[in-house]
Amino acid sequence: MNTRTAPSGPWALAREALRPRARGVLGGALLGALATACGAGLLSLAAWLLATAAQHPSVTALSVAVVLTRALGVGRGVARYLERLVGHDAALRALADMRDRVYARLAATEPVRRFRSGDLVSRLVSDTDSVQDLVVRATVPAVSAAVAGTGAVLLATALAVPGGLLLAAGLVLAGLAVPAMAAALSRGPAARAATARTRLATDLVDLLDGAPDLIANGAMDRAVARVADADAELTRTARRDAATLGLGAGAGALVAGLTLAGTLLLGVAAVDAGTLAAVPMAVLVLTALAAFEIVAPLPAAAARLAAVRTALARLVPVLGAEPSVRHRAPGARPLARRGDLRIRGLTVDHPGHRVLEGVDLDVPAGEVVALVGASGSGKSTLASVLFRFLDPVAGSVTLGSGACDGEELLTRPPDEVRAVISGVPADPHVFDSTVRENLRLAAPQADDTALAAALHRVGLTGLGLDDRVGAHGGRLSGGMRRRLALARALLADPAVLVLDEPTAHLDPDTRDAVLDDLLAAARGRSVLLITHDPVVLDRASAVYTLRDRRLTRGTGAAREAPEPPAYPAPNA
């Protein structure tokens, strides 16, 4: 589990993302500076060659410059290739690190429910991908321009001090002031673009997920119109961003033109005064021209940096989400594979209110215990604690053969607890894949014989392992989804099965058949049956009623469930 401290802001997150890859980022930037310097050197050398050649020197006097031209041309190509190789490698590795960190935090804190689906997808994809732009489109160009620009200023100063100072002033304006203006102007569009992108993703996910209900209620046209409006807003924001980039490029060109004109005037004046020869003057002017090509990408890099900042700011709440379950070290010994489940003094809070207080509940080994209560009374919250999706405020949950031999589950890592407590949630999720792949989530090494046996145990004899279940199990009925989820739970061979509303939304005949198959398949395990259906209570040996955050206990009729047939044991 990732226990790294949450970042305090977007720039802190940027530093954390780049620090492990600093060597690659710096190497890419220096190689980029070398490639840029070779390009600028080619232009300066071309000026020297043209000006010198006009004086009709001997071929020998030009030979060194010709060889150097070839060297700079080859060096530029090689350095640019290596810059792409090293810089993009660092960028992709930084992106992989960030994805790993985001996914680890999602797995550790279960914050999926804290964000809307489309918003979360936007944060996981677009915002996380911004780390790559942070390296390739912002950091590397800025460092390359700083190094190569400094070299150009030093060369210009060596030729003529006034020309070097003027070039330095122009580069400061074009390389710092104009990008700062572009970043300031892009901050608002970047935030609006992130909002528009999130709105578009959210509306689109809602449209796809709710398509049947939208069509049934005649609301599809309105939903499509909302998606179109979100797309139009994102397009308008992109146009504003393009206008900002155009303004930055125009301002940079204006500064470059004015500086170049000033350098030319200074050079002509120096030649007239006899303090500068004609050949160095030509080199000075074309060096100034090449220098502004070095800083030309910086306004776009600054605008992109504003977008990266917005994206990283949206990742900070995800990475800073408080864990639902605290990190714990592995236990010294394995948990019992069978035993009595005992809950004592369990108190659970949701933000702003208390859901359970001082709850005591026993599920003896091999028996079925029912938990009933009105909707919203906290039944599913208790199941979330047992599944280790939620930490209680106080209390204990033990599993063992006796009152004094029980192993405390709340002090164990969640994955250890889920190996012995499994079950079927109120709305079990099945993935858009085959039945085989859905079952192998619980037992990756199980062979087809064990998978088929698990299906048979829960009454899914008509379902093949290669059958596809569709998106969200759309090709299966509600009862079949619950049976498939139970088969998946049984393959994990847990000590305790928690069945949360296993007969919800089923007709009486289907309800009885499903419940009979579920309990028959679960025979020999402790079963906590969470329900609000009083008809199913005669299957339980004890009934607990949850009301006003507390439990009261009664006695069930305990009807015998049919003995399951003998099938090969799951190969878990």
Please write out the topology.
Layout: H1 10-18, H2 22-53, H3 59-109, H4 117-159, H5 161-209, H6 211-216, H7 220-273, H8 278-295, H9 298-319, E1 340-350, E2 353-363, E3 368-373, H10 379-386, E4 394-400, E5 407-408, H11 414-418, E6 421-424, H12 435-439, H13 448-457, H14 478-491, E7 496-500, H15 508-521, E8 526-531, E9 542-547, E10 550-555
Parallel strand pairs: 3-8, 3-9, 6-7, 7-8
Antiparallel strand pairs: 1-2, 1-4, 4-5, 9-10
In short:
59% of the residues lie in helices and 11% in strands. It has 572 residues and is α/β, with parallel strands linked by helices.
* Low-pLDDT residue intervals, each spanning 5 or more residues: 556-572
Distance linking N and C termini: 24 Å
Percent of residues in β-strands: 5-15%
Domain module tally: 2
Question: What is the C-alpha radius of gyration, as a whole number of Å?
Answer: 34 Å
Number of strands: 10
Order of adjacent strands in the largest pleated sheet: 6-7-8-3-9-10
The helix tally amounts to 15
The level of helicity is: 55-70%
CATH class of the largest domain: Mainly Alpha
Task: Please state the overall shape, judged from the principal axes of the Cα atoms.
Answer: elongated
CATH architecture of the largest domain: Up-down Bundle
Helix/strand-derived category reads: alpha/beta
- Assigned CATH superfamily of the largest domain: ABC transporter type 1, transmembrane domain
CATH topology of the largest domain: ABC transporter transmembrane region fold
Write down the overall mean pLDDT: 82
Biggest sheet architecture = 6 strands, mixed
Order of helices and strands: HHHHHHHHHEEEHEEHEHHHEHEEE
